[in-house]
Every structure is written in C-alpha cells, then in structure tokens.
Amino acid sequence: MTELITVFNQNLWLFVSLSFVFAAVIGSFLNVVVHRLPVMMKRDWQQECNHYLAEYKKPVFEQNEKALTAPIDEFPEKYNLVVPGSACPKCKTNIKPIHNLPIIGWLMLRGKCAACKNPISARYPIVELITGALVAFLAWHFGPTAEFVFSTILTFALVVLTGIDLDEMLLPDQITLPLLWLGLILNLSGTFVSMSDAIVGAAAGYLSLWSVFWAFKLLTGKEGMGYGDFKLLAVFGAWFGWQVLPLVILLSSLVGAIVGISLIAFKKLNQGNPIPFGPYIAAAGWIAMIWGESITQWYISTL
Asked: Which example biological process does GO assign this protein (predicted)?
C-alpha cells in the first residue's frame, strides 16, 4: 500500500484519472440508490401501517388484507439495491453489461433502449459524470490521503441525498445519520477538526435550523423545511466543525433564494410551493469542505 501511495504521489494525474473512472462506476450505482431507496422506504412504511392495522384494527385488516398487502408500486415484490437487475422500464429487457458502462454505455445506446428504443434519461450519464468529476477534483486537491478517502465517501452520499431530495423532497435517515456518526468518529483522532469542534458543530448544525423551523412555524403556521435539512447541516458540523456552519447556511440560503426566485420568474414554480433545500446545503457544504477557510479569510479581510 505504501508503494502504491508513493506511485500516486509521483504521478498525481494517474491518481486523478483512476479516481475519475472509479467514481464514475460508483456513480452508476448511485443512480440505482437514488431510484430504488425511496421505493424501498415506502414499502417499509406500508408494512409498518399493515402491522398497525393487523394489531389494532383486525376486523378491518382481515376484510382488506389483499389490498393492504399489495405492493404500492409497479415494481416486483423482491426489490432492493441489487435485485432485480437493471432493465428497460418500458419493455423490461435486461440491460447488457457493456451498456451499463458509465457514460460510455449511454452514448453507445444513443440515449435509447437497445430493444424498444424507449428514451433513457440523460440524468444517468450526468450523475456519473458529475460524480467522477467531483472525486477527480478531490484526488487532485487532497492527493492519496485519508482525507481524500473520507471526503469521497461523503461526496458519494451527498450525490445520493441530492438526487433523492430533488425527486421526493426527502433526505433519508438511512444516509444522514450514519454520516453524522461517521464524522464524529473520524474526528476522534482529529481527521478534519478537533473532537470538541465536531461535537459542537453537530449540535449547532441541527439546533440552528431546528430553531428557524419552529420560529417560522409559530409565526406562519407552516413548515418551512424538513427535519432532514437539520440533520444534513449537523453532518457538516460533525465533519468540519462549527466554524463552517455560518458559511454553509449563507451559501445555501443565497443559492436557494436565487434558484427559487428564478423559477418563479420563469413560471416554473408557483409562489408558495415548496422546493428541496437539501441540494443547496449539500453543495454549500462541499464547497466549504474545499474552500471554507479561504472564503472565510477573504471575507474577514474585506471587512
């Protein structure tokens, strides 16, 4: 391993190139997670409701048992991140391994199913390309270090959270909570910040948006954001300390406001309709991970 790290240090562009390829392959799997995890979660929620009905409303459950246990979607009963294999949603033809190659496979098919010519969303190669580019940049920025490994894991998770939040207005606990604990564990040895900064960051990240949520709800009677947003900000606090939180909040709010106003101006969004805030927190947190200290120092110098 030491020899390999030495080779990568001597040939940084080789390390960057391999990181891009590796991350693009992982990006293909991340597309699967974005699509399937919400379905799996909804099925779990359905099963919990069924157990409740079976225990507390047994006569009603018995009368409607077939309807209540039926799948809530068009996907097969055995459905997880691995099974079934990738297939065309229209004709159900299995996708050949060569066509599953990240980016290249979609280009080979010219964005259409090989069997029925049904269009394949360009989102798949875009996610693969973005994932590869982000991790390649991390490889160039950190080099072959522990910081590169852990920031890559965080980046993969942020890509998934962004995709799911855009689709479902949801930031799953199955991803945010493990990230939160991982950040705290990593900083036991001060990987990114001291342990005290990480603990304060996690608490401050959650409580800051939690306070805004309840203040807004008490004033308007409406919920301005979801609990997943609190947890995602807590993740960045746990990973990079409380010092990054003002920058993450400022950047995410600024970008969110610009996007929201633009969508309303171009009539892509009705005023008052919710928009996912998680992607802006994710983007701001990633920027803070790379340039947070430089941006903060620049801002202080301009005062």
From this structure: methylation
